[in-house]
């Protein structure tokens, strides 16, 4: 774990955060600067810097984010109305925390 990684510190409970979900592999919490009424971050507990740093061994870890996203969307009432899933990759792609994470964004009234 890089000492300066905010999400590693959150995962390790060194920084206070309210987990909406936690298991041995992932945590889910609300984005502190939400872009929508529902804006969750799905974060693997294992540190991977970005999509660009994925290895073949990470396939199941990343693949597991999608069923978790569907579960979180249902629990937060956006599964039927719709939501976005987003990975930001590197600074030019909007990544601000360099620990792989998936944004679940939804809840707009249309």
Features:
110 residues; alpha+beta; 21% strand; globular
Break the fold down into its secondary structure elements and pairings.
Layout: H1 6-11, E1 21-22, E2 26-30, E3 38-44, H2 59-63, H3 65-75, E4 83-86, E5 102-106
Antiparallel strand pairs: 1-2, 2-3, 3-5, 4-5
Structure description:
- The protein has helices at residues 6-11, 59-63, 65-75; strands at residues 21-22, 26-30, 38-44, 83-86, 102-106.
- It starts with 5 loop residues before the first helix and ends with a strand.
- Helices cover 20% and strands 21% of the residues.
- It has a single domain, classed as HIT family, subunit A.
- It has a 5-stranded antiparallel sheet, covered by helices on one side.
- It is α+β, with helices and mostly antiparallel strands and 110 residues long.
- It is built from 3 helices and 5 strands.
- The mean pLDDT is 95.
Order of helices and strands: HEEEHHEE
What top-tier CATH class fits best? Answer: Alpha Beta
Strand-pairing-aware structural class: alpha+beta
Low confidence ranges: none
Percent strand: 15-25%
**Strand order in space, largest sheet:** 1-2-3-5-4
In short, what is this structure?
The chain is of the alpha+beta class. 20% of the residues lie in helices and 21% in strands.
